[in-house]
Design a protein that fits this description.
single chain; alpha+beta; OB fold (Dihydrolipoamide Acetyltransferase, E2P); Serine Threonine Protein Phosphatase 5, Tetratricopeptide repeat; ten-stranded mixed beta sheet; 29 helices; 43% helix; globular; binds S-adenosylmethionine
């Protein structure tokens, strides 16, 4: 066996958690890290203090702070912020609290009554009212966009606008006038108070000529108020990449009298600005207006179709996109840009329909792009969402599938990535009112999801229909032409449905060193429909923002697909299920473990495992074999029904000790040990000695399974050459389930696979002893046997499958 396989195998064995779980995948990972973060305690104490104080403050009239004090406090913090930015200080931890949930305002402006700052009470949502305020300062962007505002009486307060997009353009400038619906006056941790807005639709930014702006606050535009002047102003902003301002100006232009042709041109300009900021719904409306107004074969209609196709592509409506481009091609066959888009749409449709991906290309793209957003389509294979009884909805097969079959391949709806190599970004910690903290990419994910929905209301149901426990969302989805996105609903949905991931599952398996945080998190709506089972029938892996789901065993039609939410080996598995997802797992393993909790069998298992360990140390294979027998005897149900994790774990240690490290075992015995390890995981394997090798039942999927099949294949080269091919096939299938694809299997099997021997192995590696080829002095374990023969490292292989000595992910 080549050196690279050994070092990789050893690296896995050095890291026990990776024997079972190849990567952190459950939504809780980031949250659990957050709860052990050094700042967690501090924030938790602050939260508890706020909680203690809040009830006594509710409805209290606040003391009016001196105007100068509010302004100077703001200036102090803002200038500190500017100084830090100028000095390139990053890496700070930005912390914030989420208040107790409250619904967004669902009343239209005309139903609300005006109130003033002076009337506002602490810790109160002033329902049925609004206040009109003007910013006295430029914005300071911390966790929230912060400004100081005044009302028409000249009373002032800090205003914190949460979850607003950071698109490089200031959201609030000095003099910006806003309406705050149902204002919320919040007591701050430092004893001060201010206005806080959590729902995007609760703040309305008024354009300069809005009639609701008091005369004293109105400012004259620096150009004439004609359609053409506004349009020109919009184009100035557009050219400086100030798309939000451009949209405002084009919108102003459209309120002025103009010719139908000018209106179409302005709409098309605005459409382009909408496309730039990902507001595809709005872009689509502009193109549809133009297509309904302009002459079909005109230049305007040609442009409108092209932009319509782009908007549909952005919404991942590839079929419609293709139809638009097809029509465009008929009328304007020379339009080269349209042709490029048409080819792209056809490729997406093929992926969407047939699930045909070039996975090598996906890996290459994930390696290059930051963030690793991959421009490919979601494929939904033989699965459908349907009722799963007491578990709510679930995902089911629509036809029989085989282990390793692709179930679906889903592009993330929203995906947040933390590029460690990008330098000194600030980290974020969000303390929920329920005491659960969220850190890093999940905080970003939360804000990104809110933004994406607010910008594209047609997508709201895709996310709000996901499971949100007992949270009662408001039924209103739109008010005064604005979409309503309930921030607290989104927070709950992300907590229950988001997955943490690494850049790719493949790189995660090959990366050395400690892993403390997953580098990304995302929302994959279809993947969110799978319920949990510790003994899942599906497995997920990642390439950038793509989630690949494969069957872990052969399944009939109409079988429910399940997977782990929290790693099988995590000691807090059951508690986490209860706390975070609100259910008790009733899989065969959990039920069996429950029966064991009286302790008798558990203690005897632990004793036997220790005995086996001592026997390995002492080099006594006889004792190992008899103790493994005894350990097997502590299980009542067959391993295909209830996997024997303790047996698997200890057999892995034995395999590591005798097959990989000491190399003092004969191939027959190596094969026996490996087969026993696989069987302990629930693999129902027929044959395996000679003649036949058939997996009747697939067991638990863990990274070690691939290694087992590869080691077995090598053993068979000496003992049963007719089984090399089936072992290779099973290795490949296991690899496909684990990594998501098997195009990269060559990396893993390099120098060891049947193919690898003749194609990729260097002469030196080919000569290096394999499990099976290595002449063994004894078929007994022997601590005093000759030490492992060092095989020269091969640079390419070691860089791919590096040794991991790190702390396992939580
Ligand atoms: C990500 S959602 C899964 C889809 C969800 N069942 C639905 O109706 O949309 C997670 C929620 O599903 C339910 N669930 C998942 N696995 C379960 C299980 N094994 N037993 C009971 N409920 C489960 C729990 O309510 C959990 O909070």
């Amino acid at each position: 066996m080549g050196r690279s396989m050994f070092s990789w195998l050893l690296s896995k064995l050095a890291n026990p958690i990776l024997r079972r779980t190849p990567h952190p995948t459950a939504a809780t990972d980031a949250r659990d890290i957050a709860n052990t973060h050094p700042h967690f305690e501090l924030l938790n104490r602050q939260r508890q203090k706020l909680l203690r104080n809040a009830p006594s403050l509710v409805g209290q009239r606040p003391t009016k702070p001196p105007r100068d004090l509010v302004l100077s406090r703001f200036q102090l913090v803002a200038s500190q912020n500017v100084r830090n930015a100028a000095m390139g200080r990053g890496g700070a931890l930005r912390t914030s609290h989420l208040p107790p949930s409250y619904p967004p305002c669902v009343a239209s402006f005309s139903e609300l009554k005006k109130t003033m700052i002076d009337n506002l009470l602490l810790e109160t949502h002033h329902q049925g009212t609004y206040i009109l305020v003007r910013s006295l300062t430029p914005q300071n962007r911390m966790v929230a966009v912060t400004v100081v505002v005044e009302d028409e009486n000249g009373d002032i307060l800090p205003l914190l606008l949460y979850h607003q997009a950071d698109d490089g353009e200031p959201l609030v400038r000095e003099g910006t006038v806003m309406i705050l619906k149902e204002p919320f006056l919040k007591a701050m941790a430092d004893g001060s108070h201010g206005l806080r807005v959590d729902h995007l639709s609760d703040v309305v930014f008024l354009p300069a000529n809005d009639k609701r702006i008091p005369v004293a606050w109105r400012r004259k535009p620096n150009h004439s108020s004609t359609a053409l002047a506004w349009k020109a102003q919009g184009s100035n902003h557009f050219n400086q990449s100030e798309y939000r301002s451009a949209i405002e100006c084009y919108t102003q232009s459209l309120t002025c009298p103009s010719t139908p042709e000018e209106i179409c041109t302005t709409r098309l300009n605005r459409c382009l600005a909408f496309l730039k900021v990902g507001r595809y719904d709005a872009a689509l409306l502009d193109t549809e207006f133009v297509l309904a107004t302009a002459v079909a074969a005109s230049k305007l209609a040609e442009k409108a179709r092209l932009r319509k196709a782009e908007a549909l592509y952005g919404l991942e409506r590839y079929q419609e996109c293709y139809e638009v481009l097809k029509e465009l091609h008929l009328d304007h066959p020379d339009n080269a840009a349209a042709e490029v888009q048409r080819t792209r749409a056809i490729t997406r449709l093929a992926e969407q329909t047939y699930g045909k991906y070039n996975f090598k290309r996906l890996h290459a793209e994930a390696a290059q792009r930051r963030p690793p957003y991959l421009d490919h389509a979601t494929y939904i294979g033989p699965v459908r969402v349907q009722d799963a009884g007491s578990r709510g909805r679930g995902l089911f097969t629509t036809k029989a599938v085989k282990a390793g079959d692709l179930l679906f391949c889903e592009k993330a709806f929203t995906y947040a990535f933390d590029d460690e190599n990008a330098g000194t970004g600030d980290s974020k910690l969000l303390m929920g009112h329920d005491g659960i903290a969220t850190i890093g990419t999940q905080v970003d994910l939360f804000n990104m999801a809110i933004q994406k929905l607010y910008r594209n209301p047609s997508l709201i149901p895709t996310i709000t229909n996901l499971h949100h426990g007992s949270y009662q969302p408001t039924a209103t989805t739109q008010i005064d032409g604005q979409p309503i996105v309930d921030t607290f609903l989104l927070h709950r949905i992300i907590a229950i449905n988001a997955f943490s991931s690494s850049l790719t599952t493949l790189t995660n398996l090959a990366t050395p060193g400690p892993q403390t945080t997953p580098s990304a998190s995302g929302i994959w709506p279809l993947a969110s429909s799978l319920n949990h089972s510790c003994l899942g029938t599906a497995f997920r892996s990642f390439i950038g923002d793509f989630l690949i789901a494969r069957a872990t065993r052969d399944l009939p039609a109409n079988a429910e697909l399940t997977w782990w939410y929290h790693p099988l080996e995590a000691s807090d598995r059951k508690e986490t299920m209860r706390r975070q997802w609100g259910f008790e797992c009733d899989c065969a393993l959990c039920v069996d473990e429950g029966r064991l909790s009286e302790g008798v069998a558990r203690r005897s298992r632990e004793g036997l495992v220790e005995g086996i360990r001592r026997a390995v140390e002492a080099g006594s294979l006889d004792a190992v074999e008899s103790d493994v027998e005894a350990l097997q005897g502590t299980y009542v149900r067959p391993a295909v029904e209830v996997p024997r994790l303790e047996v698997w774990d200890i057999l892995w240690e034995v395999v590591e000790g005798v097959v990989v490290r000491r190399r003092t075992v004969a191939p027959e015995q190596a094969a026996r040990l490996i087969l026993a390890a696989l069987r302990a995981l629930g693999y129902g394997i027929e044959g395996g000695e000679r003649g036949t090798l058939v997996v009747r039942e697939w067991g638990v999927m863990v990274s070690g399974v691939v290694e087992c099949w590869v080691l077995l294949r090598e053993a068979y080269r000496e003992t049963a050459p007719e089984l090399v091919a089936p072992a290779e096939q099973y290795a490949r299938t296991a690899y496909r389930i684990l990594v998501g694809e098997d195009e990269s299997f060559g990396l893993f099997g390099e120098g060891r696979g049947v193919k690898g021997r003749s194609t990729t192995t260097t002469p030196r590696a080919r000569r290096s002893p394999s499990v099976a080829a290595r002449p063994s002095a004894s078929d007994r374990l022997s601590g005093s046997s000759s030490p492992p023969r060092p095989t020269p490292p091969r640079p390419a292989a070691t860089s791919r499958w590096k040794r991991s000595t790190g702390v396992p992910p939580p």
